Amino acid sequence: MRKLSVLAASALLLASSSFAKEINVGVVMSMSGPLAAYGQTCNEGIEFAHSLQPKLKNGDTVKLVLIDTKGDKVESANATTRLISSDKVVGIIGELTSTNTAQVIAIADKKEIPVIAPVATNDKLTEGKKFANRVCFTDSFQGAVVANYAAKDLKLKTAVVVVDQAQVYSLGLAKAFKDAFSAAGGKIVKEIKVSSGDKDFKAVVSQIKAANPDFMFLPMYHPEVSMIARQAKQIGLNKPMFSGDGVANQTFIDLGGDAVEGYMFTDFFDYGAPPTERSKEFIKAYAAKTGKQEVNSFVALGADAYNLMVDAMNRCANPEDNICVNNEIKKTKGFEGVSGVISMDELGNSTRSAVIKVVQNAKAVYKATVNP
Amino acid sequence: MTVKKDQWINLSFVFGVIGFIGIANSFFDEYTIRILNNIAIFTILAVSYNLINGVTGQFSLEPNGFVAIGAYVTALLLVSPEAKQYQYAIVDPYPFVLSLHANFVVALVLSGFFATCLALVLSFPVFRVRGDYLAIVTLGFGFIIKIFAINYPEVTNGSLGLNDIPEFSNLYWTGGIAIIAVITVLNIVNSKFGRAMKAVRDDEDAAIAMGVNTFKAKTFAFCTSAFFEGVGGGLLAALLTSISPDLFDFFFTFQLLIIIVLGGLGSTTGAIVGTILVMGGSEWMRFLDEPMKFFGYTTPAMPGLRMVVFSLILIFIMLFAREGIMGKKELKDLFKGRKRSAK
């Protein structure tokens, strides 16, 4: 009897594997170039999620086709065209930055291939596009989270915003914050413009000190923010400081040292407070494989971009039907991802929670979860 | 007799390219077509950059600036007012930006025109200096354009750039304009102006002593170069359908510099060969990034490996062909006997 069932099972397996197809999913990512560190982290999440779930429900195997863009727009365009015309992908995950993702979407949208952006937060990215989706939150949501948390929970009234003119991310986040903070009854007393690559922020911190706000909002990336924090401490400016996910990494804390103690920032997820069953499992498997518990937000979002794609493919009768996959992605509600519960809307934007963290004893500590 | 033979070689080459463009769309997939488009656009840029850098010998590092101007002019003229309405995220655009609209040909010509005007104005400060100093002055210009694009969101939409540009560029446009650019540049090089430019390159003081108006020769080369760079930028914008300031940083110039040095400074044929090698080769070598099978053993995917191999190839070429692949030779020189090309 036992033999028979083993035989039957293996026959079934053989039968299903002989019918099982291989379905290509494209990954466009900055694996080399100036943003390689972020791109590789994100791809790590995509590949790890793939290793946990390499097959679809119907037995088809998903094959990831990774193409490097060097963080370049022309190469992003080449990569996307190649994935669609030569590799015949059903969907594309990528790119990293908002401008390069806009390039990927511009081509994929015409060919009706769904794109899931793991970390591109710019509001305008999905506007007017049918096949653009993302698993991260938008800048406007993130800006509102900070503004409401500061105004309502911390009861702060006045703010200074320092914005990085050269970064889309910074401009978008600053604008969202200003709107939301004013709506919540707060007042922006000063806005200061800097440019990424600047090193000397003495004039900036002196201006902030003179304006004497309740707190500062610095929607920028970690190299500049850590320097501003250090130089602010030097002149005795001890107001609370806030940033977006651009500083959500350990490098920021290492660079800032004791100047960033008490620094608050928003993030997508915290490995210490796994929001779903899936994230618990993911962190466990990740720790077993790499030996470390610290699942970076980019790893989690990369994983969710892949998981969401597979989930949508599973719900289609024919997983190779790109139109159906795109519709299913947009219909996703209450999806339990690694980084939290994700619901998609018609535009392809995700509604999801944000996490607020604070730096304590040179570690980012979970403080609160903000639901939309 | 030789003149006639040269013409035949060049003509057959041009007709060969036209024939290739004619049949390419029905033979290749979209990926290959895109690479061919890239090659055509970069041929325009490289050939015109070679005119100022190789033929006239002025070590200028400005193409990213002119390409950016061309791309932005074309983009602003082509994007429909409705699409502009929702794109400007940071600040509202100036009213005149919304009213801009033109067809593709007008947009391309205006792109070239604006770049040329700027080149004309720029030539006065730029050509007061020579050599390394000229490199620094022109490098500064490239940076200024990029910073302008970032800091004037009322016109350029800042670092987000312009999206939803109608995709007008196809192989007929890019290839056709590339042929026009190559023929124009070759005619300039072989004219009286071209000889003056070469005289400036070989010894500027001697050229002045011989009565060559070196400023005029340099400005003429600079403006012609700027015109085609502007047009090339416009074609690039209409091919990518999305542009942002980070596309036009110094690495863009750097890539063009690699192309013309690899092909041979001063050789138009070399610029074309260099473009095909750099633009086509770096895409062709993508298989190096992917997992590979050697005798049953599979190596893991190594993104970035192709650039390592590519750099190695560059080093070897430059070691064994000091003057680039073509040196100063042109296509016609390849068909001549050894004795003649030696002189």
Structure notes:
The complex is a heterodimer of chains A (372) and B (343). Chain A is of the alpha/beta class and 372 residues long. In chain A, the strands form three sheets. In chain A, strands 7-6-8-9-10-14-15 form a seven-stranded mixed β-sheet, with helices on both faces. Chain A has twelve helices and 15 strands. The radius of gyration of chain A is 22 Å and the shape is globular. Helix content of chain B is 72%, strand content 2%. Chain B has a two-stranded antiparallel ribbon. In chain B, helix 3 packs parallel to helix 7, helix 9 runs antiparallel to helix 12 and helix 13 (250-263) packs across helix 14 (268-284). The radius of gyration of chain B is 21 Å and the shape is globular. The interface between A and B is large, with 38 and 40 residues.
Number of helices of chain B: 17
Order of helices and strands of chain B: HHHHHHHHHHHHHHEEHHH
Shape of chain A: globular
Strand percentage of chain B: under 5%
Tell me roughly what share of residues is in helical segments of chain A.
40-55%
- Structurally, the number of domains of chain A stands at 2
Reading side by side through the largest sheet of chain A, how are the strands ordered? 7-6-8-9-10-14-15
- Count every beta strand of chain A, where a strand is a DSSP E run of 2 or more residues: 15
CATH architecture of the largest domain in chain A: 3-Layer(aba) Sandwich
Average per-residue pLDDT of chain B, rounded, comes to: 89
CATH superfamily of the largest domain in chain A: Response regulator
Oligomer: heterodimer
